[in-house]
Amino acid sequence: MDVNAAVAAAAAIAGVCTGVIAMLAFRWSEREQRRPTRTSLHTDPVLPPGVDTVLSVLRSSAVVLDEADSVVKASSAAYALGLVRGGKLAVEPMLQMARDTRRDGEIRQVELDLPRRGTGRGEALAVSARVAPLGSRLVLLLVEDLTEARRIEAVRRDFVANVSHELKTPTGALSLLSEAVMDASDDPEAVERFAGRMQVEATRLTNLVQELIDLSRVQNDDPLEDAEPVRVDELVAEAMDRCRHQAGTKQITMASGGTADLHVWGNRGQLAAALGNLVENAVNYSPARTRVGIAARRVAAPGGDLIELSVTDQGIGISDKDKERIFERFYRVDPARSRATGGTGLGLAIVKHVAASHGGEVTVWSSEGQGSTFTLRLPEAGSARDRSSHRPGLDDEDENGQPAETAISSPYAHEPLSAPEVLP
Length: 424
Known about the structure:
- The protein is α+β, with helices and mostly antiparallel strands.
- Helix content is 46%, strand content 20%.
- Helix 6 runs antiparallel to helix 7 (188-218), helix 7 runs parallel beside helix 12 and helix 8 (232-249) runs parallel beside helix 9 (268-284).
- It is a multi-pass membrane protein.
- It is an enzyme of class 2 (transferase).
């Protein structure tokens, strides 16, 4: 009996000890779970209330860093710019700014040129970076992409410089010619000669100012105002009349085809100026006793039929390197010829912007020594004949009031004229 009692007592004591040990272990485990770890202190900080929402609507690229320089929050734009890689800020100057701001609490801003990720052309990405403290432990980095703004600013500076140069040429010539007239006041023949030159320079100055006004009106590609169905044959006739004198002086034959029963939707004045510029260029850059053709046709397109207006010449042609730049403002393929003909270098830039504002495009085919074809593609005026009942001045020859659905093939759309028989 004494042995059994001793065994029972020992078992009871062992059970109590086990229970105590289990309870202590449970308490210790709970305490350890509640205790903040080093990892949670440094890699899982909580953003202040509302900051996450604000960062999601910012246009700038946003990055939030903790005291270990780890990225706590980054916008998709920051990843797109290549600022964040592998959970770290990948731009060392920005990282150093963040450390300095974390140390002294001062807001810092700097502009940097960063290499573009994924391009081997060495192009720089211009950015403006601003760093500010966010609470006591976090740092906020905002990065603004300035690349497009700098490009536009460079274009603006070039444009102002080019305009100044182009205006200085005729005004300087007028000043010199006026002095020559005064010095030759007793020589009627010299006065008449100098006065003629003054008229030429005054005309060049007037044309330049007018084209600058036209370009300022269309270069923003704003939605069209006062749009209406415009007859293609009337546009072509107006463009040919505009250049008839120059063509007659050089014995250049102008002819048109395929323009009947076609309408485009847009601003009549802008469309007439664009087509007139193409025809004028064709005449100016064509040798004497050649031909200039203007043709139109309807072509099918997924978003609706288009009207192609093609202007073809047998001129000097355009080299491949010049084709990429001919629609730039003030760019001239042959500066000497442009100045001789009074060209300003703005005509094709106006054509490009008119096409864009009308939802179309302008393209060029050319071969040196064979000629060029400029093709202006514009949306066809939908149900133009239906609108004619409310808009006077449109063709009403068709008693049914419906346009003819005949696609007219243009011989000028893809190659220069090669024989007189091509045009009627």
